[in-house]
Specification:
Order of helices and strands: EHEHHEHHEEHEEHHHHHHHEEHHHHHH
Low-confidence stretches: 2-9, 511-516
Structural class: mainly alpha
Distance between the termini: 25 Å
Number of helices: 19
Length: about 525
Amino acid sequence: MSETPHERADGMVEIGHSPLSPVQVAAIARGGAAVRIAQAAWDRIAASHGAMLSLTGSGAAIYGVSTGLGAAADTAVTPGDPGMQQRIPLARSVGVGRRAGEDEVRAIMAVRLARLAAGCSGASPAAVSALADLLNTRVHPIVPMTGSVGEADLAPLAHIASVLFGFGEAEHASEILEGAVALRRAGLAPLVPGPKDGLALVSSNAASVGLAALALVDARRTLAGMLAAAALSFEGYRANVSPLLAVAVGLRPVPGQQAAASALMAAFHGGDLPKPGTARRLQDPLSFRCVAPIHGAAQTALSGAWDAVLRELASSDDNPAILPAEEGGRAVPNANFDTTHLALAFEGLGLALGRIAAASGERIMKLMSSDSSGLPRFLSPIQQGRNGFATVQKTVSALLAEIQHRAMPMPLFVMPVADGVEDYATMALSSVEKTAAIARRVRLLAAIELMVAAQARDLRPGSTLGLGTGRVHDAVRSAVEPLHEDRPAAPDIAALDSLVASGAFDDAFAADGNPA
């Protein structure tokens, strides 16, 4: 999950000098960072656009420029007709359902800019500049999110492009306005499209990739929070660390397992748990014993999805690509809008997060069970008629059911469209969205496990926490007090969910070394 920094000293993110990373997409989307197109990117954009003009003037057949789109690709049209390029997004503004959040819209626009900066679209510099202006003036188009089948996210991007032309709707200064009004209030003018601008603005998987980048940042923090929760559960349960020892995990070098085991042993360093005689059992339930292979598999899935997004951010998905290298340029039809690899990576990540959730749910239940943990039932220090965390189990059960449902894969066969021409689809955007929804629910489970594990630890005095688990416990207690008398748990869960989302556990064990 290597990243390349792009943020300048003035807080502006430069696009087109080198590929963006998911973290940089999140900085633009959520941190409100402004963008600047690198000069090298402007040179590429101008060269591709010049090739586009040359090809148009030569009478070359170019899909979406001198022909119709989809099933109408066999229909000749007047090349360079600005009316046609304007109609392309208007006719594809067919999205329905939930509105994209402001951060999602910004992520989509940032990714489309990054791919336009590759200089293979034929888009005019004016179109690229206009899209950057939307980000920098915080004009956020209203984007309904249902309508893409994953072979270019035409519908979401069409709603954005329509605003550039003065149509559609956008939010600006907390007010939803007609596109032309939003542009005017931001000091912008509607775009007059060049020969391929309408197609270039919508023919991209920027919605799938943009939301994927945000989902990856969230999933990484969720997994960090989950590993911290598992470590604290080990302390609260007084679990056996033998399955985490280097001699044990080294017998089967499964990707990620050794790193997860090493991180956990580092967390226990300096405490009593690794000492002989501390564990209560020789063999703990599998939700404890199998933490390292489960988390290792999830980290491997996260790395695979991260690499898939990095590849997308570093490449062009324009069809046709307009290449200026040859004399007069060349229009190259291609299938780079297909994101099967991205969809499969996110389906795998969703399944991996689901398994993390299943193990977490079981650890939570075991900690609350007096028969399993040896602690007071439901971790209530007062047993006479008190609830403790008993009803939190229902929330855990509900979250697990929703996670399992969303972990089911999208259909492999999707109804053909465009008169049967488009007879395959990845549904990548839907796969990304449901994986993001899984990550949010798993983060809530991490919050619950942190709350429950800290309570279990507090009910088992007389032992010393490891350096890492001590920091995790302190972080939990900085946000949530121990449970004495019954009280609403929802505010505590929300506080810990925010703590995980903030990245508080991202480097929880980084400074402890590994004595294993």
